[in-house]
Design brief:
With 289 residues, chain A is mainly α. Chain A has one domain: Farnesyl Diphosphate Synthase (Orthogonal Bundle). Chain A has 16 helices and 2 strands. The longest helix of chain A has 23 residues. The two termini of chain A are 30 Å apart. At the A-B interface, helix 2, helix 6, helix 7 and helix 8 of A face helix 2, helix 6, helix 7 and helix 8 of B.
């Protein structure tokens, strides 16, 4: 089964549970809208790529971890797009959830996606309790706690935003969860995989900052110039466009180097190099290569 | 250790993790505000009362379950009070979270409380994986899925609201989780305890509907006449005040009768009868007794 199919079918199964008979129709529709069709599924792909590089001993647990990460990511997008945050009407080239269904259902859909991200592990507790428990802790740390995605969003409400803490929490934490969880799902110690996730998260954030400046909304599928409009730090502003592309290139190099020894190390390194390309518009991707 | 102390200290420990060093200051303050000082802590008290009646074999797991339920309840209150839902400025006699910290932090605080509700189980997976896994499933079903608290809130966005499904999801599901989890934490089969939770949840909802009609905001500590203002079904409207009090009395009787055989059955039955009193203003509580 290929990676896309693994990811989409696990997400479909998760949503089938959340939206089963008895679910209010609009909530069910909002959940579907929030998750399908997806974007590049960068984080669950990374999770599965690491699991496969480590031998993919328990593919069904790797699938659950990948789906959990994507559900948490989708939840953060739905809430981040709300009028009280970014007020973004466009997501993945379509109306954002609150635009299509209203703010109440967008708040509830985000909440339900978070619950679903934990529920995907339920079938695996009995057979692999220790591993599943560790995955659960990885997810909690990546989203909650003092340094997860939620804290990252919350930095936007402070007067002083510490750029590194902000980006590491808002973007890096879920990329780190992807590499940690991929290794853990394959039965490997997760910690050695943190650096890879963090470097890729930082690279992705810089690419996102570059796109926010150079793209138009149609190409991006979401509003652009958000950072300057909302007064938020932007790496491409801080480093200049050429500086940001250089930094991105350096981070991808460090990411590739950081891959721990594992059966599929070479293949994973190649995957990282190619999968990072769609982070950027084509002409910039050539520059960064 | 008494029940209050067990609940408050477990909640404090959970928040200490979420708001540890590195957490943005306003998010940390919003989380504290959302959880402390608490209301009557009805649901975690019920959870611990059931655990104690069943022998309280693993008190630390019962504490985690009780805290998880209260954190999920607090999360639902924070999101439910938002301007896009009830737009309630008052909660527990103080400004609601969005009133004190703004809507962005209220959305994020609710999200973080949901994560924290799962994180409380992390220390218990290793020693009691099966039990903890079952508790996790109980929480997911109570909040997410097709019939949990989130679905209950989502019914308010539909044109037709099926009253029973609405109340069972919005209120009953978390009361049922309290009794199921209390039994499970004590090592007993949870399902026989569902009816008790459902009856108490329905009783609590009716009491809440009565209070919404007969109280003033100062006595209630939150806005009153919300149901009629927001066009939502209210049992005391539907049944009349006397009819609603009778129904409440009947439900509490059924709840007491439904308590499964267990070492502390008599004490638990007495607890249910007395703990239901604060549901209502004093003069009505006498009527319902």
């Amino acid at each position: 089964m290929n990676t896309s199919h693994r990811i989409e079918s696990t997400l479909e199964a998760a949503l089938a549970i959340s939206t089963a008979a008895g679910c209010p129709a609009k909530l069910a529709a909002a959940l579907q809208h929030a998750v399908f069709p997806g974007g590049a599924r960068v984080r669950p792909r990374l999770c599965l790529a690491v699991a496969v590089a480590c031998g993919d001993e328990h593919p069904e647990i790797a699938d659950a971890a990948a789906a959990s990460i994507e559900l948490l990511h989708c939840a953060s997008l739905v809430h981040d797009d709300l009028p009280c945050f970014d007020n973004a009407d466009l997501r993945r080239g379509r109306p954002s959830v609150h635009k299509a269904f209203g703010s109440p259902l967008a708040v509830l859909a985000g909440d339900a996606l978070i619950i679903s991200a934990f529920q995907v592990f339920a079938p695996h507790f009995a057979a692999t309790p220790t591993q599943t428990a560790s995955l659960l802790s990885i997810m909690c740390a990546a989203v909650g706690g003092p340094r997860g995605v939620i804290a990252g969003q919350a930095w936007e409400c402070e007067e002083q935003i510490p750029l590194n803490d902000y980006h590491r929490a808002k973007t890096g934490s879920l990329f780190a969860a992807a590499t940690l969880a991929g290794a853990q799902a394959a039965g490997q110690a997760p910690e050695p995989w943190r650096l890879l996730g963090e470097r890729l998260g930082e690279a992705y954030q810089i690419a996102d900052d570059i796109c926010d400046i150079v793209s138009d909304a149609r190409e991006l599928g979401k509003p652009c110039h958000q950072d300057s409009d909302l007064g938020r730090p932007n790496a491409a502003d801080a480093l200049g466009l050429q500086g940001a592309v250089s930094r991105l290139k350096q981070l991808l190099g460090e990411a590739v180097e950081s891959v721990p020894l594992c059966p599929g190390r070479t293949e994973l390194q190649a995957h990282i190099a190619t999968s990072a390309r769609p982070y950027l518009p084509k002409e910039l991707a050539r520059l960064a290569a």
